[in-house]
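Task: sequence design from structure.
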């Protein structure tokens, strides 16, 4: 296994706990420095899943958590934005 594959698998594991540790998973994904395309793609997909509106997930994490993630993103400047 190479670096990209290992990191991508770690990101997939984070997806499994995103409803339990939402803020921590979000912060880890955002802080991840990506130079390998497979890692960037996996990270972006995980962030998109975390941020998408999903009524089943919202039952677990509640709207306050979703709002907290949105507030964090609104504080970013254009250099910090990682998903277009």
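Answer:
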């Amino acid at each position: 296994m190479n670096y990209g594959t290992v990191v991508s698998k770690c990101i997939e594991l984070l997806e499994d706990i995103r409803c339990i540790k939402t803020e921590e998973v979000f912060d880890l994904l955002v802080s991840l420095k990506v130079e390998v395309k497979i890692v960037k793609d996996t990270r972006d997909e995980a962030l998109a899943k975390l941020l998408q509106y999903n009524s089943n997930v919202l039952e677990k994490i509640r709207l306050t958590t979703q709002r907290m993630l949105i507030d964090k993103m609104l504080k970013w400047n254009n250099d910090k934005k990682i998903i277009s």
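Residues 55-74 form the longest helix (20 residues).
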